[in-house]
Structures are given as C-alpha cells and as structure tokens.
Amino acid sequence: MDLKYVQTTCPYCGTGCSFNLVVKDGKVVGTQPYKRSPVNEGKVCPKGTYAHEFVNSPDRLTKPLIKKDGKFVEATWDEAYDLIAQKFKSYKPDEFAALSSARVSNEENYLMMKFARGVMKSRHIDHCARLCHASTVAGLAASFGSGAMTNSILDIAESKCIFVLGSNTLEQHPLIGRKIVQAKQDGAKVICADPRYTPTARLADLYMPFVSGTDVALLNGLMQEIIKNGWEDKEFIEKRTKDYEKLKEVVMKEDYSLENVSKVTGIPADQIKQAAEIFGTTKPGAILYSMGITQHTVGVDNVRSVANIQMLTGNLGKPGAGVNALRGQNNVQGACDMGALPVVFTGYQKVIDPAAHKKFADAWGFPDGICEPKNGYEVTVMMDVLTDNPGELKCMYIMGENPMISDPDINHVRHALESLEFLVVQDIFMTETSELADVVLPAACYAERDGTQTSTERRVQMWRKAQDPPGEAKEDWQIISELAAKMGYADQFPYQNMEEIFNEVAELTPSYHGMNYERLNKPEALHWPCPTVEHPGTPILHKEKFSHPDGIGIFAPIEWKPPAEVPDAEYPFVLTTGRILWHWHTGTMTRRSATLDSEVPTGWIEINPDDAKALGIQNKEMVRATTRRGTVNVPAKVTPDIMKGVMFMPFHFAECAANILTNNALDPIAKIPEFKACAVKVEKITEA
Amino acid sequence: MAAKGDMVYAWAADAACQERGECGGAVTALLTHALTSGMVDAVLAVKKGQDLYDAVPTLITNPEEIAETSGSLHCGTLLLSKLVKEYLDGAKDMRIAVPVKGCDAMGLYELAKRNQVNLDNVLMIGLNCGGSVSPVLAREMIAEKFGVDPDTVVKEEIDKGQFIIVTKDGEHKGISMDELEEAGFGRRSNCRRCKMKIPRQADLACGNWGVIGDKAGNATFVEVCSEKGANLLDGAVKAGGLKTEAANPKGIEIRGKVENSMLKLGDKWRAKDFEALGEGKERLQKIMSETGRCIKCYACIENCPICYCVECSTKKPYLVEPGQVPPPFMFHLIRYAHISDSCVNCGQCEENCAMDIPNALFMHALQTDMEKMFGHTPGVDMELPVLALVEEQAERQRLSDTGSDQIFDVFK
C-alpha cells in the first residue's frame, strides 16, 4: 500500500487555504489539515473538507469529444487538434475570442493569453473576473493606482473596526470570516450592512439591513457625518491625497443628510449616525467588500466610494485597515494578473501602450507578429456582439468557464453561443456550456496539476499534483501548447513543465519578477509586488505612497444612482443573487460532491414573511419568479432573514437558474453586469 | 529477557542513527527493527515537511526511509489514530508500527473498542509528551517572545518546563512555558489539560525523562508495557540494532517526579479552564454562544477519533436540518451525547475548527464530569464506555415494559 500527503491549495474561493490531499495507491481519497499554512492553519470550510469528493467522479471527461450530427463522438487528441487547428486558421484574428479561467493556474492563464494574442492574433480575451471584480480592478486603479485588495488576510485580525459591506464573508470566504471573529475577540467592533441577515451579519455589533444598490448613498451619508464631526484624518488627506474638496462638495449635499440617506437605504437615521461614529473614531478600520459592491451598474462608483471613505479616515497603508476587496475565485486575482483581460498583458501592462506591446511581441517572437495594440471585447460585450452584430465574432475557445450558468441573462448567453460557427470548450466535466460546443477537450482538475495561483491577498501559492488525470485528460498547459504546436507555433510554446512557463511570466511581469518556484514552495509564499529575488513581497500596499506615478491617492466625487432596473407595479421586488457556503458557482464540482450535495441539493428564493403572506406563499412551496428576461420555477424559502421588498436566489442551480432572471445591464467602465439588483415578480403556481 | 514493567536505558547501535535521532535514536532503531524483522508490514510515523514547524505523516515500507522520521517535532499537532482507521483499513489486514503520543494511543484504543482498528496488528511505540504547540502560533511566539526569526531556528525542544530553541548560529534560547502560556502562547489548551504524559497503554513507553548520568541526552528511557513491547525490545537488542542497560534507580525516581509534576500541572489547567466555563445554565449559555458561529465544516467530526459512524446522526435531516448556517444547536448536542463519555481530549476538534470554537474544552469538561459520575476513563484500556453498555432495543423494550421515562437508565 502506498499512502502519501500532497500539500496543495484549495480550488474554491480566493482565500487561498491549504490542505493535504491524501493519496492512496495513486488515487486521491481524502483531505487532511495542513496546519503549517499561515493563511488557514489547517482549518477549512466544508467545501475544503470535502474537496476530494468530485475528483474521481465517474462523470469526469476522459476523452476528446467532437460533435457530429448533433451528438458527441469520442475522438483521439490528434483528430481533435487537427479539426480545431484547421477551423481556427480559417478565421480572421478578431473573429476569434477566448475565455480564460479563474479556476486554472497562473501559468495556464498566461498561456491562454499568449495563445489568443500570439497564435490567433486576436484582441478578444477575457474571463469571469468581468463578472466579479472588474469594478474593483478599474475603481481601485483609478483611486490608488493599483486595483487589488490593499491588505493581507492576516492583518484583518488586527483591525479594531471592521465594516462588512456587500460581503457574506463567513459563507463566501469562511477563513477570512475567521479573521473577523478573531478581531472581534480582540475587542474590534463589527458593522455589517446587507439586505440579508447573513451568518456574517450575526457577528456584527451593528447590523443594518439596507436596500440593494444604495451603497453610494450610504457611504456618502457616512462620510458627511464623519466630516461634520471632524473625524476625518486631516493629515492623511493633506499629505497623501488630492481632490478632497471635490469629494466634500458632493458628500456634504443635503441629498446625503442622515434623513435623506435613511429614506434611500431604508436604514434608520440613528443607525447611520452610530455607524459613522464607530467607523469614524475607531482605528484602524478595515472595509471588507465583495460582489455586493461590485456587481452593479454603478460598481465602479461603489468601489471608488469605498476608497473615498478609507482615504477620508486615513485607513490605508497600515495593518488592520484597508480596502479589502475579497476576490471570489481561487485564481481570479491571478487570471487578471496574467493579462487574461481585453486591455492588458501580464501585471496590468496596457495593450495599447506601444512599449508594452513591443515588449511582449519581441519576447514571444512570433514571426508573423501578435494582435493589434488595441483593446478587445469584454465577455459581456462579446455576448452582445454575438447577438446584435452577427458575423463579427465567429469562433470561441473557452477554458474552464460555464457562462451558461454564471453569466447574466442565460437565454441571451445561449442565443450568443449558438450564433458561433465554432466553439471549443475545455473542462473537467460536461457542462451546460460544453453541451453547446463543437469540440470538448478533457482537462485535469486541481488535484492533477502543479502550478501557481494567486489568492485575494495577492499571495502566490503552489498547487501540487496528487494524481494523474483520468483517462486521456490532460493539463490545460499541455493542451494549449500542443494545439499551438499544431498551428505551427511549437517554437513559441516549447514548455516541458509549469515552472518554465512561470519563469517566463516572472521575466515579463514586474510585480512577479522576484518570484520563482523555490521561493513560492515555502509555506508563506510571496505577496506581489515582489520585484526582485531579494524582495520579501508586499502584504500591505500603499504604506508610504499610493501606486499612481505621483504617489497620491485620488478622491472621486460620486453621486448615487439607482440600479438600471428598479421595482415597478409589474415587477414589484428587488432580486439579488449570490452564492452559498455549500456550493461553488455553477455547481459542476460541488454538486458532484456527495456531502455538499446532500446539505443543499437545489436552489430557492428567499422571501420575507410579510411579502410571502401578501403573495399567499408558503415556505418550501414551488413558485414562479419572473423578470423581463425570463421565468424560473423555484422553491420559496420564507425567512425573516431577508428584508421586506427584497428577494434572494443562489445562482448555482441549473434547474432554477437565477441567471435566467438577472439583468445584463453593464457598468459603463468595468462592463460588469448588475447581478445584485433587478426587478422581479413572484407568483403562486396554480394549475391551469 | 525483557518483561512488562522493565525499565531500561536504550540507544541505537548505529552511530548515524544515534546522531539523527533524539536521545540516542532508540525509537528509530526500534522502528527499523520492527520493519526489517518482519514484525510489521509498515511503519506509520511523522516526518519533517517544509520545515520544523511542519509535521507530515508518512507510511513507510522501506526501512531506509525511517531515518526521515527521526527526531521530535513539538509543533506537529497531528493525531495518527484516525488515519489508521480512515486510510489503512483500521490495520485489519496489515501490521503496522506507530510511534504514539498519549492522545494517539488513547484514540487507537477508542477506535479499537468500536471495531474500527485491530489493535492486534498495531505495535504502539509510546512517546512521552509534555504537549505540542500549533505551528503557526509557534512561529508567532518565536518571533514575538524570543525575538528570533522563526526561519532561522534549526531545533526546538520542550525541557524542564521551558520551550527551547536553537538557531542556525548555534544560539540557545529558552523561555519558561508558564510565561509563554500566560501570554497566550505555548502548548495547545488541550495539551495543557492532558494527563497522559507517559502512554503506558502502548507496547513501550519511551522518553528522555529519567535519563541521568553519562547517558543523559544519549539514551532513551524505555518502559516495557506489554509482551509485544518486550519482544520488540529483545528482538532489536538480539539483532544488534539496539543497546540497553538497566535504568538508574535515581533516574526512575526522577522520571516519576517529572511525570507527577506534569500531572499536577494538568490538574491546575483543568481547574482553571473548567472553572472559567462555569456551571449549569451559565455553561450552557457559553457553549450555545460559542457554537453560534459554527459553519458546519465537519472538521470536528472528520478528525475525531471517537466518531466512526457510517451514518452520522448529524447528517439525518430529521435531527439536523441540512444546509443551515449556523447549524441548529442539535448538531453540537449530538456530538456531546455521542462522544463525551469517550473524549480523549486530543484537541483536533478545536484545533481544526474553522471558527475557533473551543470544542475540545467543552467536550473535555463533559468527559471529566462523566468520569467522576461513572468511573470510566477513556483511552487507557479496552473497557467499554457508558453508553456502549446499553442496547438500544433492550432499553426501548424496558421503557415500554416499565413505563419509565429514563432512556438509557444508567442510574439503575
């Protein structure tokens, strides 16, 4: 018998927990704590405890599949590669689009980016970061010059005041939630604003239920109260920021008085006053936010308002403070860092910057050049172009994404993907998206590969291979490299292993320049920026100065704007969506994990008891939820834990998919869709 | 010929093994002999992972690899018992040697009572243990209290009431455990309360306490605790892998004193910890409030050496509604009801809890109360726990026959 532990990092959320995979006779059979991890000290959430359960599922894809006469037929890798290469070559560069993946490694995201821009010479590459923190990347870059979480997970425990806004940390980033608990045990005050009384809200000293989409009003109101009382950090504002007067002009307006903000948000004025006093006078103060802030048509405005209040109170560049944008997926930070975005190469080097463009073109050495130095389409825009401008985009290569569940307005997504002439999907399971593909390629899962991933706190950590992929499945980097070779670019994809790819990334990326596998193999690993091999990494950003060229943080005057779609007589409720502790995004992994599936086998819609009574709806009754985009039948969960007038659906479940209902209205800058607020009506289902 | 109760000083015959191992490398030599002689098919031991704060269990069938497990790691807070059940089929078809701390040994006994581990196939080399320190906390402690970069530490030990580190520059630094623990560092709280310092329910009990004179630091004190242990010791000596001499009587006395003072310290911590929990309603209130942040990660169940049910009651929808966060209090009540008579205070349910709920403290407090009531001490022998003595069907019959409302009437 052979038994070994393989220490690796979790494939689910962006916290970056580690655990051991237990490998018995070459197969992953369990997980065990890895207590040496500085991030989670051996502790994990239920998804981590049972992260082995889906790995050897009989549903895993084991052979390439080619669709013939509407049915998938098993093929050899050569047959699949030949077909894909021949098809891909037949399209003009900008007729091709790639969707990279926040689920795979940095190395593989880098390769997909290189493939799209170098092999296909297309401008169009994006991934699901568009759907989660695009607003953070854009908003924080505008305010601070760097679009990432400013502090580290560990120093959240040192905070004296934690304001949780638009994050259900205990369920979505449970081991960051633990840091809130630790801070609280150490005397910190916790404030939480959320339409739902979540497990995170239960930790709060002050819980304020508020109407989804009124974040800017709330933050402006808090800032007005802080300024009125003189709680702002005058020295910080003076020395480290600019445009304070512009901010002041807006937030001091009568619109943002306690009374008016109370009307807009639904929070009693005295609670807002109390929150302002706690947050304005207790230092250091951290803000934790997530999708509740970003997934709005005003996502960037929300993010900039969070940045504003933290600059106003001087809560930046120190332990226990900061703008803690909690990134959703295991490697969504890394996928962004690797340039799997339509506007940047690695390390946020702009595609339209001639110097950066030349740097990558020269380093890669494609004899026939790379994509034009122009921005490409965001995934949400790709879908619109596909439906609204037929023939502009013709083929797509999707790696490890399932937009048929994860993207807003699924009927629209289906229409878009069906408009493609040729679709290749690379995944570990057959998904709602790969069903639509012409070719499906079987990939390795997290337990079957090495490589690095970058957690929400910019910590770059290792994955370690525990078992071989099933059947003929291959690691994504191998597939991309072999496909590139088939298309005549073997010289540009000569890799023998992940480490060679990482070294190329480090070479081209200033913030990763000082990293290598030897350093990353240490349990502490490294936080970027890490510019040299001697550099210890940077857990806390903006310590002395911000990342703008002049080192100054910029206040942005932001006016509150309502969501794109607000309740009316026909659709009288606000629908908001989110994930739950037990499942991961589109459910392909967690719904195949027996323990997780038995906890929560399907979705629901949360309805306040008063609303349910008015609608004549009982708990657990199947109801019909309808928006302007579509209709789903879904079980009702009648609960006082959601405020009146607001309804909530988890989005993991294909059979009652929340995203059939959501609105593809986009933030004008970040192009992030408004998952967190649209207008819905809910009806009893009566027999016809 | 060695016999149960014998006490010897032992050390490895091989110089390299002496060097690598702790106190003369006797345990390494014993494990090597167990494997090479065919007494066991494999050794389950702990080796150093990334650094000395990282303990990794390893299953060894090649005797040459045993060297990797030499030396002690006080920041390894693993429990090996459950691994034997979970991943080695409870040693049903395989004979294994396992170096065990008190909690490992107690866990193995409890699993054996429940037919989850075949103790006949397990050779337990007991290790004296004064407690262990969680790795991340240990690093913090070394940085904060010792003022030393934890990456520069090449050795740590717990000796004479001190936590001692040696840096790569050869500098020794020790701070008393009391002082460290006063400051919130030091041993895990379950270790502080532990009173299983010399695991005599193992086949051999090994440690450095009581090794005096020229053998101090160069030999291991071995107490023979079973016939199996005697055979191993004899075999290793006969094969030339191990050398022994009779333990110095003064050393035996000193060992007894060390053990006693550790037990007293354990009592002191118990009194302190349990008192702080309060009693009755106050205690219940505390437990309900602390468990109120549970996210049902199941770490307490998955890592518990008492939990073994294929169909866990906490997963029965009519007892605990699935999917709720936090789970209903019944989730925790089921654990208290099922475990507390047999809790061995291994600490895993607390150390692995995602929300830092002091689960081990609650369970251990209940266990000591039950031990007082029923006189049952878990983990020391094969005596069955209180609840296991009750046949549910028979109890239900009795209830219906007598009209009693006392389920499991243990007071009869």
TrEMBL record, chain A:
GO MF assignments: 4 iron, 4 sulfur cluster binding; formate dehydrogenase (NAD+) activity; metal ion binding; molybdopterin cofactor binding; NADH dehydrogenase activity
A GO cellular-component term linked to this record: membrane
CDD domains given in the database record: MopB_CT_Formate-Dh_H, MopB_Formate-Dh-H
Family assignment from sequence similarity: Belongs to the prokaryotic molybdopterin-containing oxidoreductase family.
Domain annotation 4Fe-4S Mo/W bis-MGD-type: ranges: 3-59
Names of the cofactor(s): [4Fe-4S] cluster; Mo-bis(molybdopterin guanine dinucleotide)
Lineage: Archaea, Methanobacteriati, Methanobacteriota, Stenosarchaea group, Methanomicrobia
UniProt-listed SMART domains: Molybdop_Fe4S4
Species of provenance: Methanoculleus formosensis
Protein's UniProt keywords contain 4Fe-4S: yes
Alphabetical UniProt keywords: 4Fe-4S, Iron, Iron-sulfur, Metal-binding, Molybdenum, Oxidoreductase
Pfam family, one: Molydop_binding
Record-linked InterPro entries: Asp_de-COase-like_dom_sf, CT_Formate-Dh_H, Formate_Dh-H_N, Formate_DH_asu, MoPterin_dinucl-bd_dom, Mopterin_OxRdtase, Mopterin_OxRdtase_4Fe-4S_dom, Mopterin_OxRdtase_prok_CS
PANTHER family per record: FORMATE DEHYDROGENASE H (PTHR43105:SF14), RESPIRATORY NITRATE REDUCTASE (PTHR43105)
Protein name, per record: Formate dehydrogenase subunit alpha
Superkingdom, natural source: Archaea
UniProtKB/TrEMBL annotation, chain B:
InterPro entries: 4Fe4S_Fe-S-bd, 4Fe4S_Fe_S_CS, Co_F420_Hydgase/DH_bsu_N, FRHB/FDHB/HCAR-like, FrhB_FdhB_C
A molecular function GO annotation: oxidoreductase activity, acting on CH or CH2 groups, with an iron-sulfur protein as acceptor
Cited Gene3D superfamilies: 3.10.450.750
Keywords in alphabetical order: Iron, Iron-sulfur, Metal-binding, Oxidoreductase
Cofactor(s) named in the record: FAD
Pfam families: FrhB_FdhB_C, FrhB_FdhB_N
Coiled-coil ranges from the UniProt annotation: none
SUPFAM superfamilies according to UniProt: alpha-helical ferredoxin (SSF46548)
Domain 4Fe-4S ferredoxin-type residue range list: 285-315, 334-363
This protein's name: Formate dehydrogenase
